[in-house]
Design brief:
The chain is of the alpha+beta class. The protein contains 14 helices and 27 strands. A hairpin with a 5-residue loop joins strand 25 and strand 26.
Length: about 650
């Protein structure tokens, strides 16, 4: 929509140089609206719009160049298949994936990354996590903690190069922004809570103390933030060597079993260098004698090592060995501090086990190495599952780094799709950042995309070419290395099978249920009533439910409605992103549902498709999608 606003007392005429020239007139003190229609031919494109305009005003000609940027997206639900392990000169790798029957034509693309250092893992995890909603304290921490770890890493591995200096400066700038958001979640009592409201959470506060303690090593922070949190948490100690937990069960963190919560708090505090925990560690050692849960055991083992109780730590680390599987994972845990389960719980438990085993590398080095192979194979486009499993994995990667392989020389990584080379990246032994094929592969893969259809097999391979080993002196070095990589196939699916999830999302617009292919017609400026219903049909309570409601590009939410929902307690939090409204609930009881109503306003004429909607548990694998719908808006006559 173009608006010609004439604030003078004379008539103005505007001419547009387009394929079909357009001319329209605005009388004195009048605003005239003109609707320009565009048909988007290519999906998933960034589209520049350029209009040459000329106006005749009071007999004089005036010129203007109007430029705008817009984007188009493939229809359907975004999905991915991800693979990972280790790559080296003698170990080329290949993976294959079959596109589903409801695959959206031409939507497939590929990504590949190689991680030569822990810093490269941190930076890619950060990039991946930022793409997800992160409205609460723990989720915001997932975008700051990798920066803290990266800056601490560079304190030990700073080669003085200009590039490292740039990375440090960039990380510090991002961390400062994240820190300013984090401190808004500190409650009036001094502890931390998901969204910053009392009562604070004991385990979440301990996690905050760990993060802020490490943060102050790399940048200045307000010392009162730490002292208030520590004072509040010390006041929660009980006479049994544990912690008194809030009666208000708000979320996954707060609803974990007492043993797990106590162990997590002591792990976080002892990892932050706090040592006045004698009663607490003795209580945990006693409980660990009869508790065989490997997640709990790993937390207590690390704390023992941190608190100069190495004999007890070694006994518990040995106990973890019996829970390690052939693939390196450590399984059998019942739950975690975030109430995670399935694959994410296994990743958290395995990462904590690595941290325990690395305290005694001479005894448990082989177990740690085997576990790390499992962790690096679990990476999905830079992340290792949820925020907690990703942070713990990064901690394990950094701890293990002293014994891990590095790029032993120079050469080229080569990525191929179905036998056709789509990317070639040179590397040297000094590489710090991830080697990222995304842009190269996207450009080269463009010519191959037409070869794939529903049922096609995408074969990806990654290899090392032209490798020249070199040691620190510049002489011939190691003839081999093995470092982590990940490869992903991204695509859109019109109707994936998510009906097995006990968590369901129902969306209706103006009283009409949204299903695949739904379309609605309204007038520009009209307000549309949306109803979002989330149902949890599972047998156990679920924590941190997130509903992402996709909006068409010609609509925006009525923000006062969202604020009212939060103030009334109907939702616990909300945030908005481009074409999305994101709703949070701290917890949802089994066999219950939540319904919310808010309005959406059409702001631009035309027909637009919405992004796909979904509901999921932030710390679990329950997820259900709703296919995109479209909204047509007719220009108003006003």
């Amino acid at each position: 929509t173009l608006l010609l606003q004439n604030t003078s007392s004379l008539q103005s005429v505007l001419s547009l140089s387009t394929a079909n020239p357009i001319k329209f007139t605005a009388a004195a003190n009048e605003t005239t609206k003109k609707l320009l229609e565009f048909t988007i031919l290519d999906q998933n494109q960034s589209i520049p719009l350029t209009i040459n305009a000329s106006a005749i005003f009071d007999g004089e000609s005036h010129q203007a160049l109007i430029t705008k940027q817009t984007s188009s997206y493939f229809a359907g639900i975004p999905l991915q298949a991800t693979f990972g392990s280790k790559i080296g000169p003698s170990t080329p790798v290949s993976h294959s994936f079959t596109l589903p029957d409801s695959y959206v034509d031409k939507s497939v693309t590929v990504r590949a990354k190689v991680y030569p250092t822990p810093f490269s893992n941190m930076s890619e995890s950060l990039a991946s996590l930022i793409r997800e909603p992160y409205g609460c304290f723990e989720q915001t921490s997932s975008t700051t903690f990798p920066l803290v770890m990266a800056l601490r890493y560079f304190k030990l591995h700073n080669d003085g190069s200009d590039r490292v200096k740039e990375l440090i400066a960039d990380s510090l700038a991002k961390l400062q922004n994240g820190y300013e958001k984090l401190i808004t979640f500190q409650t009036t009592s001094g502890g931390f809570e998901w969204f910053g409201s009392d009562p604070a959470h004991e385990a979440l506060t301990a996690y905050g103390i760990l993060q802020f303690t490490q943060m102050k090593e790399v940048m200045g922070i307000d010392s009162n933030v730490l002292s208030r949190a520590t004072q509040w948490l010390n006041g929660r100690r009980n006479n049994d060597g544990g912690y008194t937990l809030s009666d208000r069960v708000l979320d996954s963190f707060g609803s974990s079993p007492q043993d797990v919560t106590d162990a997590y708090i002591v792990w976080a505090l002892s990892s932050a260098g706090i040592t006045n925990l004698s009663q607490q560690i003795e209580s945990l050692i006693t409980r660990a004698a009869s508790n065989n849960d490997p997640y709990f055991t790993a937390l207590v083992a690390i704390s023992c090592y941190n608190l100069n109780k190495a004999d007890s730590g070694k006994q518990l680390a040995q106990k973890l060995v019996s829970s390690q599987q052939v693939n390196g994972s450590v399984t059998g845990a019942q739950t975690s501090i975030t109430r995670s389960y399935g694959e994410y719980l296994d990743i958290e438990t395995t990462a904590l086990s690595v941290l325990a085993w690395m305290k005694d590398d001479d005894t448990f080095g082989a177990n740690a190495s085997k576990a790390m192979n499992y962790i690096v194979a679990s990476v999905k486009d830079g992340a290792y599952g949820t925020t907690q499993s990703t942070i713990l994995s990064l901690m394990a990667i950094v701890e293990y780094e002293v014994n891990s392989d590095k790029l032993g020389g120079s050469g080229e990584f080569v990525l191929s799709a179905n036998g056709t080379e789509v990317g070639r990246l040179p590397f040297t032994k000094t590489a710090q950042e991830s080697l990222n094929f995304d842009d190269l592969a996207a450009e080269a893969f463009e010519t191959l995309r037409d070869n794939y259809s529903a049922g096609s097999v995408v074969n990806l391979s990654l290899s090392v070419d032209k490798y020249t080993p070199e040691n620190a002196s510049g002489d011939a070095g190691s003839t081999d290395f093995a470092i982590p990589y990940s490869m992903s196939v991204f695509y859109k699916d019109l109707s994936p099978d998510t009906n097995t999830s006990p968590l369901t999302l129902d969306l209706s617009i103006n009283g009409s249920a949204v299903v695949a292919g739904s379309s609605y017609s309204f007038t520009e400026g009209e307000v549309l009533p949306y109803t979002v219903k989330v149902t949890h049909n599972g047998s156990e309570n679920a924590g941190m439910i997130v509903a992402v409601v996709g909006l068409p590009g010609n609509c925006e939410p009525v923000f006062s409605d969202l604020r009212s929902l939060k103030e009334a307690g109907t939702i616990d939090y909300y945030e908005t992103k481009e074409r999305e409204v994101i709703l949070y609930w701290r917890t949802m009881d089994a066999n219950t549902s939540q319904s919310v109503n808010f309005n959406v306003k059409t702001i631009t004429p035309g027909t637009y498709s919405a992004a796909a909607s979904r509901v999921y548990t932030y710390y679990g694998t329950m997820e259900q999608w709703i296919a995109p719908y479209s909204v047509s808006s007719v220009a108003s006559t006003a």
